[in-house]
Each structure stands twice: as C-alpha cells, then as structure tokens.
TrEMBL record, chains A, B:
<keyword id="KW-0805">Transcription regulation</keyword>
<dbReference type="InterPro" id="IPR000485">
    <property type="entry name" value="AsnC-type_HTH_dom"/>
</dbReference>
<dbReference type="InterPro" id="IPR019885">
    <property type="entry name" value="Tscrpt_reg_HTH_AsnC-type_CS"/>
</dbReference>
<dbReference type="InterPro" id="IPR036388">
    <property type="entry name" value="WH-like_DNA-bd_sf"/>
</dbReference>
<feature type="domain" description="HTH asnC-type">
    <location>
        <begin position="4"/>
        <end position="65"/>
    </location>
</feature>
<dbReference type="InterPro" id="IPR019887">
    <property type="entry name" value="Tscrpt_reg_AsnC/Lrp_C"/>
</dbReference>
<protein>
    <submittedName>
        <fullName>AsnC family transcriptional regulator</fullName>
    </submittedName>
</protein>
<dbReference type="InterPro" id="IPR019888">
    <property type="entry name" value="Tscrpt_reg_AsnC-like"/>
</dbReference>
<dbReference type="InterPro" id="IPR011991">
    <property type="entry name" value="ArsR-like_HTH"/>
</dbReference>
<dbReference type="InterPro" id="IPR011008">
    <property type="entry name" value="Dimeric_a/b-barrel"/>
</dbReference>
<keyword id="KW-0238">DNA-binding</keyword>
<dbReference type="Pfam" id="PF01037">
    <property type="entry name" value="AsnC_trans_reg"/>
</dbReference>
<dbReference type="Pfam" id="PF13404">
    <property type="entry name" value="HTH_AsnC-type"/>
</dbReference>
<dbReference type="InterPro" id="IPR036390">
    <property type="entry name" value="WH_DNA-bd_sf"/>
</dbReference>
<keyword id="KW-0804">Transcription</keyword>
Length: 151, 151
DNA sequence: CTTGAAAAGAACTGCCT
DNA sequence: AGGCAGTTCTTTTCAAG
C-alpha cells in the first residue's frame, strides 16, 4: 500500500480537479519549486497511485442523451457462464462500464443510448439476449455529481 | 448537438485509450500533420465534446480496497427533501459519485472504504442517517472493466 | 488541408543545500 | 527531501502555399 504525505494528497486533490495542470502550476499553488512538484507527480505515477488520465467526454453533447444503469442477475452462474456473459457484454458498443458485483445483482452495467427508443432497442436486442441473463433492473440517469473522494 | 466526422471520432477513440497523447502523435497515427491534429483536438475542447481530463487513481493501492454501489430509495420525496438529501450526501467524504436516477431507486452512490469494517461504519453512521433515506441496497465491487463506448 | 519555423512553456537533468 | 540553473522536448502560434 502506497503511503502519501500531506503534500502528495494536496497534489492529488489538485490534479483530480484538472489532470492537465503542469508541474510548475502545481508548485506555485503549493509553494514548491517546479522540479520538486514534478518529482512528486512522477513518483505518484511510478508508485502506481496514479494509473493514468482519462478523457471526460460530454456524451450528451455528442448525441447520447440517455444513460442507464442496469443491474443484471444471472440465471446460471457457473464459471463458464460468467465468462460467456462477459465476452458477450464486451460486444455491446453502448456499454461503457462492466462491474462484476456481489449482492442482489451479479453485474452492473453503465449503458449510453441516443434516446429512450434507442435504449429500448439495446435492452431488447442486446441485453435481454445475453447468455445466462436472468433478471434485469434499470435506472435512468437524471443527473450526476462527482465528488473529490476521501483522499 | 456536436457533429463529428470520422477523423474526429478517430481522435476521440485514440484519446480515450491515452489522454496524454500529443497532437504530433495523433497526427502520425491518423495521417495528419501536427497542426491539423492540434486544431481538431482544440476544437473538440472548445465545442465542449471533451470536458477535460481526469485522474485515474488506483484507490486500492491508496488503501481503499472496498468499493460499494448503493441504491437509495427516499421515504419522502418533496423538492426540499431531495435538496436536503443531496446536501447531506455531499458531506460524506467517502462518496465519489452521486447519481440521481429514475427507477426502483432514487439515488445511486459510489462509495469507497478502507475495508468492510470501515464500510459498515460509513453505512450505519453516515448513509442510514441521511435525511429522508428509506430503503438501501448495496453491491460490493469485485472487478471493473471500462469499455470504449459507442463513439 | 500542407510544410516550415519561431516563440512559449513544460518536462527533465545535474548539482547543491 | 527541496532549490537553482540549464537543457531538451512539446506545445502553440504564425506565415505561406
């Protein structure tokens, strides 16, 4: 487990807001020189605390106005069945996230669609026909808020 | 709604894999000059297709080995109650994501905890005491797979 | 759209406290 | 650890076709 001091935590908090901050800008904010900030950021990457950076796309602006969370319960849960299900799920382009979970459901999926008609097509043609699929529960996203998290 | 051509889509796909790609590298892969690729990326930002870049942190390596998705049903759902609930949820540091949803539940939360004992504390002390909270359902994350999405 | 080039800024290195 | 000075590389902008 990676140990961080307060300065590392400050850096992660700043980068969570905007991952494109330069080492110089981070140093300015925290009272560090550019190389000192740069070395810390590099160490956070090298140690594996930071895995990388990902794009934050505006799917609504890109024509995908509907986001739905699906809870999926499998009818049969052998090891083969899990692998079959996961392979088939990966073939659905509208699936952004596949969570294998423990609890009332076996998988949670994040799915985007152009509109509700488009979502209905995905649900009927792609999701309900997945191998081993049992019960499916859906939640339509109204609004999303990201929080800084516990760091 | 933002219109993209095939090249824009290729750029977004490449940047989804690695958001740190330089304009020169993108151009090399797609057969564009560095300035041409740079202008396109800038336009994707300016038009709002790309909102920004976010850190991909390894929460497990940082000591938060447990991730749980909570479905929350409110007991009373007036407008005041939604605002009260949301304000109180924002005060829980372990909550990373707050989704207001339509369906069987009213909210979906993504929560991280150091371990299951820590999660139990958060659930009992912070979540179950939220204003207006009714039923709560939990799914513990076993594994997560990100997919490129439908672009 | 291209190439070429210049200016600005960020990343990286070595050495010192 | 952190700072300073300097080098290298990328980004960003412009000119011209």
């Amino acid at each position: 487990m990676i140990r961080l001091d307060d300065t590392d935590r400050d850096i992660l908090r700043a980068l969570q807001e905007d991952a494109t901050l330069s080492a110089g800008e981070i140093g300015r904010r925290l009272g560090l020189s550019q190389p000192a900030a740069w070395r810390r950021v590099k160490r956070l990457y090298d140690d594996g605390a930071i895995r990388g950076q990902r794009l934050d796309l505006d799917h609504e602006a890109l024509g995908f106005g509907v986001t739905v969370f699906l809870g999926v319960k499998l009818a049969t849960k052998g090891r083969v069945s899990l692998e079959d299900f996961e392979r088939a799920v990966r073939a659905i382009p509208e699936v952004q996230l596949v969570h294998h979970v423990l609890g009332l459901y076996d998988y949670r999926l994040r799915v985007v669609a152009r509109d509700l008609a488009d979502f209905e097509r995905i649900l009927r043609r792609r999701v309900m026909t997945l191998p081993g699929v049992g019960e499916v529960e859906a939640n339509v996203l109204l609004s999303e808020e990201r929080r800084p998290g516990p760091l």
